[in-house]
Amino acid sequence: MVSQQMYALGSNRSCIRDLFEYGLQQAALIGAENVYDYSIGNPSVPAPEAVGAAFAATIAQKNTVAVHSYTSATGINAVREAVSSDLNARFGTSLQPEHLFFTCGAAPALIAVLRALAVENAEFVAIAPFFPEYRPFVEGTGSKFVLVEADTATFQISTTALEAAITPNTQAVMVNTPNNPSGVVYTRETLEELAALLGKKSAQYGHPIYIIADEPYRELVYDGVEVPFIPTIYKDTIVCYSYSKSLSLPGERIGYICIGADVADSAQVMAAVAGASRVSGHVCAPSLQQLVVAQCATVRPDLTIYDQNRQTLYTALTGYGYECVYPKGAFYMLVKAPEGSGAAFSKRAMGKNLLLVPGDDFGIPEYVRICTCVSPEMIQRSLPAFEALAKETV
Amino acid sequence: MVSQQMYALGSNRSCIRDLFEYGLQQAALIGAENVYDYSIGNPSVPAPEAVGAAFAATIAQKNTVAVHSYTSATGINAVREAVSSDLNARFGTSLQPEHLFFTCGAAPALIAVLRALAVENAEFVAIAPFFPEYRPFVEGTGSKFVLVEADTATFQISTTALEAAITPNTQAVMVNTPNNPSGVVYTRETLEELAALLGKKSAQYGHPIYIIADEPYRELVYDGVEVPFIPTIYKDTIVCYSYSKSLSLPGERIGYICIGADVADSAQVMAAVAGASRVSGHVCAPSLQQLVVAQCATVRPDLTIYDQNRQTLYTALTGYGYECVYPKGAFYMLVKAPEGSGAAFSKRAMGKNLLLVPGDDFGIPEYVRICTCVSPEMIQRSLPAFEALAKETV
């Protein structure tokens, strides 16, 4: 007498979580130093010092009632003011506080937007490789999840393949750059082609096709690569942001939705987002975390270790003969399975206590994903296992 | 091109929120000291000192990565251990950590349980007076919201009226004690009658009818009145708890779902709750808040001020001739509208900048709700307005 859909969603957990739990069990059995867990995107560098200072200062305030009170469902006005000002300064936008809606992280932000746009027969398009939770998030709204295959030559967007996937029922295209799992950053050229295509299709079908920009990795980028702010390229862009990765606060559940004044039907979309959040149990984003991120609106992460890890792993693994996608952003790297099957390679790697996520759920079954947000020491300890795996006959 | 259902939910806000916003606007116009806002259940007493100390100690920990990391979706094991131990010590239960699922407060807890139980044609029963968000929460799952009228003689549960509302499709009855908005605590006798009725109906229809116990006010009780722990009276009880009121942390979004081993199909219900949470955007409850409530598992609120407020208001208002329900718990009091319509009385009170929530949305249109979680000074300042209203001819 329980919902079979919810039961299935709760009992078939994500492959990432399963590997992560397996790693914890193995660590208890054979020692954490003998398990090389590359499964989960838990930031390994501490939150910037300014974040700790902001937490301490906020907790020390005399008026604790004000700190811990219910806030407006959209967020504290001063917090939205601080964050919109920072976005305007960086991207030349004209965002006002009322264009931001604070959430308990990117997951509820994405779901609120999807549910807000989930009219009858709605379709949402994701482009492989993609974050696997997109599928249950979309299907949970009763909408159709449409997948565009990966362009594994460049890991940019194939606008030809995307065009074929768009129908009159397409409400939005989900875009994630810097990308999880590829670490690829979509170029300005890619995004301009995407904007041109969606502009054409919106005109053809007589309604806006939105971009839902999932941007938790916006600030995680290397080699000075540009991460264009998509609303400045395509006006009908709704941004979902999280501080999980940029401020190393994944457990603290703080992020926002940004719907600028230029977005088609912006007021209606914002109202529908508020309604969708309400029936998902949103009351407000944690007030303490809101106050902290406002104080840290201009704080950027120190990427030194992630950058080093990326280079160390890329150099070592390509040296062993692996084919890897060199990441320009986020903290992931794709490795092509020598046997052609990421699942088989992941299983073989488990035999050496090396935990690599098979690409199946990301829409790229020939690859495994490696998280580079790990300790440099673990990388060094793990390299012989990678080397041995490369030498095995498959 | 947005979901009309979500748009309606987002644009027709709750009456409580509307009054609260009106109060903020009036305060800006005529001075906060001239507005008597009894609208919103924002605790007016600060969090207990132990809570502030726990926040400070957790923030000061050296390993900030561990503090702020993703936790298991169900919550940190040590946190669930601390809270289940406290429940066992108080109520003689045998709860284990795996019976608790931590959430971002009671609202997402209720929604996850409703969605988990939302089989086709499911019906959920609420008993007036009830928390108005129950209706959109239930209807948001696609289920039928069934309302049992209030027994305004006692504000206990009329089992006769409840029995008439139960059908073969009834999945659960939502029970809120101490009650918002009445402040009434259901007696052990009431709950035993309820248990007998649901036991009989479950047997008759061949499936369990659950109680969903919404318990944010469990620790807010006066005059030594007993608040029975419902799972010890009716085994098929799922508890939804929040620390918003008991630890004065409403903005911090921390609570839990408790599904003991005795609950029918407990493992399936817990899995479905996990699935429902997943597609509502739950990743984990805020990790810092989890760590704080674990350290405060045995901390109880200081109710001195709420108790004084309750007595001051009851004595003054009944002295002016109002008919009030004397609250034994929570921090609300019902006042019967002299003109018989809570909405008309609320409107009349607004003319004196006295903000009282009409009972319509709670299912008791002849009453208004007063929040007693306000400052004693505001109560004193507001009494002339109450007195003047009582003297007006209506």
Largest interface: A-B, 82 and 82 residues
Backbone structural class of chain A? alpha/beta
Low-confidence runs of at least 5 consecutive residues of chain A: none
Overall body shape of chain A: globular
Percentage beta strand of chain A? 5-15%
Note the main sheet of chain A: 7 strands, mixed
Q: Could you estimate the helical fraction of the residues of chain A in percent?
A: 40-55%
Q: What is the strand arrangement across the widest sheet of chain A?
A: 2-8-7-6-5-3-4
- Tell me which oligomeric state these chains represent: homodimer
Mean pLDDT of chain A: 96
Give the radius of gyration of chain A. Answer: 21 Å
Number of helices of chain A: 14
Distance between the termini of chain A: 47 Å
What's the β-strand tally of chain A? Answer: 13
Order of helices and strands of chain A: HHEHHHEHEHEHEHEEEHHHEEHEEEH
Can you put this structure into words, describing what you see?
Two copies of one chain form a homodimer. Chain A has 394 residues and is an alpha/beta fold. Helices cover 41% and strands 13% of the residues of chain A. The first copy, chain A, has helices at residues 4-11, 15-30, 49-59, 64-68, 77-91, 106-117, 134-140, 159-165, 188-205, 266-278, 287-295, 304-319, 342-350, 376-391, and strands at residues 36-37, 100-103, 123-127, 144-148, 170-175, 210-214, 237-242, 255-258, 324-325, 332-336, 354-355, 357-358, 367-371. The first copy, chain A, has a seven-stranded mixed beta sheet, with helices on both faces. Chain A has a four-stranded antiparallel beta sheet with strand order 9-10-13-12. Chain A is globular and about 60 Å long. Chains A and B meet through helix 1, helix 3, helix 4, helix 6 and helix 7 of A and helix 1, helix 3, helix 4, helix 6 and helix 7 of B.
